[in-house]
Amino acid sequence: MALKTLEMTDTVYAYYQQHAFEDHPILAECRERTKTFIGAQMQIAPEQGQLLAWLVKTLNAKSVLEIGTFTGYSAMAMALALPNDGHVTTCDINPASTKVAQDFWLKANLQDKITSRVGRAHVSLQALVDEGAQFDFAFLDADKVHYDDYYEFCLILLRQGGVLAVDNVLMNGEVAHLENDDRNVSAVRVFNEKVKHDKRVSFCMLPMSDGITLITKLALE
Questions:
Q1: Whole-structure pTM value
Q2: pLDDT in tens, 26-39
Q3: 80 Cβ contact partners less than 8 Å away, ≥ 6 residues apart
Q4: Cα separation, 145 vs 132, whole angstroms
Q5: Are the C-beta atoms of residues 142 and 68 closer than 8 Å to each other?
Q6: How many helices and strands in the chain, by DSSP H and E?
Q7: Distance from the Cα of residue 86 to its chain's centroid
Q8: Per-residue pLDDT tens for 83-113?
Q9: What is the DSSP string of 99-150?
Q10: End-to-end distance of the chain based on CA atoms, in angstroms?
């Protein structure tokens, strides 16, 4: 028992990583390749990939929405956890990094389980709404200033009881420093406050990596 979350010293974190996830060769390769990219810090931690895969399996999800593709790691982690008839739809504005992701998906033989939509996320998400798409699970890891917009889209696109996972809700701890008025930090701070008081959902914020909040869409009364 403990009254607060354990501090992750380097020694504890090394042990944690040794036991926190089951690695897959293609995921490990993607992590190593991504280290050479500008913006490599946008890559989720492998334990987050494990969490996403576990959630997909536990929810018996078949349809997954991702906002923020980067080099395709999280999409692969979720696609590998899906049943044969499951599918990931992922949105990103960057065609160059999306091409890298698609190459990895092809190498992992996941090209038929993942569809990428390249362009502004607002446009892609509105198109999905117009198409009547519905998802069991969603993962949000994109530009922070639009988190609130993406959140509202996800609440439309998720089925009742569907789950949304939102990354970077701690922003390297900067959300706690109220004097920090950086637009990204401020946007996430406002988003966290909104989720806390949103009666449409239930939620749990986990201090994993840069913070991840799990949100369940409740049934409308």
A1: 0.96
A2: 999 999 999 888 88
A3: 24, 27, 53, 108, 110
A4: 26
A5: yes
A6: 8, 7
A7: 17
A8: 999 999 999 999 999 999 999 999 999 999 9
A9: HHHHHHHHHTT-TTTEEEEES-HHHHHHHHHHTT--EEEEEE-S-GGGHHHH
A10: 37
